User: Fold this.
Amino acid sequence: VKEKIAVLAGGRSLEREVSLASGAHVVGALIERGYNVVALDLIPELVDTLRSEKPDAVFIALHGKLGEDGTIQEMLEFLSIPYTGPGVLASALAWDKDLSKRILADAGVAVPRSVALSVDGVKEMGAARSLDLLPAAIGGMPAIVKPARQGSALGLVRVEAFEGLADAIVSALGFDTKVLVEECLSGVELAVSVLDDAEAGGARALPPVEIVARGGVFGYDARFEPDAVEYFAPARLTPGQDADVRAAAVRVHEVLGCRDVSRTDLFLTPEGLPVVIECNTSPGMTETSLLPMAVAAQGLTFAEVCDGLVKAALARR
Amino acid sequence: MMGTARITFDRWEGRYAGRMTSMRGSAVRDLFAAASRPDVISLSGGMPDVRRIPAAAVSRALHEALLEDAATALQYGSSDGLPDLRETITALMAESGVRVKAGDIVVTAGAQQALDLLAKAMLDPGDTIICEGPTYVGALQAFSAYEPRIVAVEMDEHGMRMDVLEAELAALGPGKAKFLYTIPNFQNPAGVTMSAERRRRLLELAREYDVLVVEDDPYGRLRFEGGHILPLKALDPDVVYLGTFSKIFAPGLRLGWMAAPAPIRAKVLLAKQGADLCGSNFTQSVVQRYFSHERWRAVMRDLTDAYRERRDAMLAALEEHFPPEASWTHPEGGFFVWVTLPRHVDTGAVLAEAVENGVTFVPGDGFYADGRGTSSMRLAFCYAEPEAITEGIRRLGEVLEDRLEVYRAFVAAGALPDEGAGGPAPVAAGATRGEQS
Assistant:
């Protein structure tokens, strides 16, 4: 019998359902590869169960708060259980779209113009009186308003005119205590998954997946509604564009200190510049998620990739 | 031994019928239903307070059913229900002003089964039906299995708005809606009651546009104030009327009924035979005997008094602890108060914080088929004791207060208009998720 792998899924985050679907897909893949698999939920009994089950490694199929922000990673390190995916610091950095964007910009990665507003700024410092400055700060309307720390584009809206900004910001502050008001990019929307490849000696990007949202914005509802979005895997890019966006995703992976896997969402602007929106350290693994699409476009099987992630974690024992 | 974090996945995923996707429940609601703890005050469940039903009265009915006629009680019954119970039902309906014969009645497993059977008998995928918006979540679940298009008509304090209904019917055209579903008394979840004038107007419109009217009346006898308003069925024999013993006796018995015109009744009976052949003769026998003793009236008075006291506690607590931007309905009976908040407050996100603070409610979007209602919530006053209700509303008020501080800062800065209303107010529909105006 092969090693025992605990797949962590569920949790209480707003992305519970998506995580359970990711977890089910991963469990199937790991069983196929002959592992002894146990699926665990992120609930108060988790530590007890981990200590009694004694898995050789944990596969993190959690999304959102606690699963993707470094919290579970930190606890697994304390329990000395190796796990798949980026470590504590990279997870925490990528989770905060405001902080990660600053680090990426400092490293020379193109990111959209944005302003972060916090609940404390509004309550304690009168930040609501600065709204008039927003359009100029992001290069004009329309704007994207989204929680700084939330997955699957939950709470993300596109605001066409200045008059709608206040409403959108107050709504987004219901999902997180910090929101980003961001330049609305045009061009081709792409998701580029990156896997660490021990044999190749570094990170390599899978084929970019192109996202065409019918309504124009790839929000939470569109992500899980079958007909709202069209995907192209691989994306319809020239060889040069393809190389550029892959290089950008690998660069993000490295700058943030990611490990094993990450998925960078970006726009290829009409001028041909890849502009990075965010990096996901626990990308969706459901049957219809972007990473599995890229895996298939590469000619790999999902099971092989899951196996590779598990082996990398086991090697850290 | 502690519990375990182990989860088991569905290995038959992918083999289910397409209709199951349209039957998805609300993830957020499931999540927090599972997370309920004893220290959490629940203002979410619409459970009647069966603790107040005297066991002796039930025990007596039970013994009579067994000792006097076990041969009937333990046998299969007829699909339309025990004749004696159907007589009891016609007598109960007569007290509400509806004249029907026992032959018009089909006894069902709760009114919920009647909803399912009716939808099964009437709906093809893509058919249009009309309901109130918001409406009973169980009706949405029952109907959605048959994949209809659901048109929600908004309400105000006098129930469904007839101008909106007329516009919808005119847009659809005569005979185009398969049926119109309404809960005229103390509506679930809005708590409002359709006025007598609107009831008459609704029936006029239904005749003009050739629409079958389905009247669901679970709470009609739980009136705390104001005068009785005649049911739609009393005004028009073509109305399909749904009743239940869940609120006037106990939901654990799973007994309800439908009073329908003969042709519809015949189709529903066919559907019922496929579903369960017949209801339980045993429980029908017990219920029939329970209502044969006058004591049930005293029990009902006691229950109604208790619910009135709880409603008063909730309304007083709302007045004291809820932020001025909130508005809510003033139910004259039933179980529920509907709260409307400024449109950017997402009550699904509020629920996460509320659970941490020890109180639950039901977010509004579950009562719509189209994603509306995200800034509303349903509060149930039927089950918790008055002191718990007051404390629950206080806790919830704190959570909302915290949320609304940001909103107020924006209003103070002149960045948002002041929506604040407060007190009893119309049932607002709320914005569709993701839609920003």
Observations:
- Chain B is about 40% helix and 15% strand.
- Confidence is low (pLDDT under 50) at residues 421-425, 428-437 of chain B.
